Amino acid sequence: MEAFMNVEQYQFLKKQARKMINACSNTKDKHVIEAMQALVMESINTKIVGITDDKLCLLKPIVNLQTKEQLEDFFKTIKTYVTPFEIITEKNIKKLFPKDKKMNIPNLKSIDWTEISYLSWLDSGTNRKYIVFRDESGIIGFRGVFSYSNKKGFCTICNQHHQVGMFMSSKKGKALGTYVKRGNYICTDSTACNESLTDFTRLTDFLKVITE
């Protein structure tokens, strides 16, 4: 069977699976567990719109998960049906940021493209944080200055409580010699952010705010 879910849907399913495990760990009440099972399946049908019965059958074991071993096996199974984030090359990245001649690019060969909705890294030499993703128009890249905050807060991109820092970008203002700065708090760890990102529109909304 061909892939039928994107990365954000895959991360969503992982989140629902953990909810199921937690429910079974915290209660033995049959009615509570059945209510959680129904809620999880309803959420899946809402998130993966138009899913066919045969594909839904592949996901139904989620409601019977009880152990960490079962959880990991479920993740491995559904991962084979994920359309990965299309692999980006160093050449692609350099075209996105032509002015950054000495940009430090991460090791792209080490990335699991089925686990990320966007690619991001911090250049510690310049404190610039780069974000690269794809939409209907193709590859998009933007950068900003990243300041560590040494605190936890809600990330603007994934909307989860993680270690965050301020991402600040600037663009030329309407008046000559002026600049407009915009930013917000996002995850320091982009891997954790990708794992928590179950609504891709949050990323695109963030981009609109800082670039408008």
TrEMBL record:
Put simply, this protein is called: FusB/FusC family EF-G-binding protein
Question: Pfam families under this entry?
Answer: EF-G-binding_N, FBP_C
> What residue stretches are annotated with the Elongation factor G-binding protein N-terminal domain?
4-86
| Domain Elongation factor G-binding protein C-terminal treble-clef zinc-finger: start-end pairs | 100-195
Fetch the CDD domains from UniProt: FusC_FusB
Q: Which domain of life is it from?
A: Bacteria
Annotated source species: Viridibacillus soli
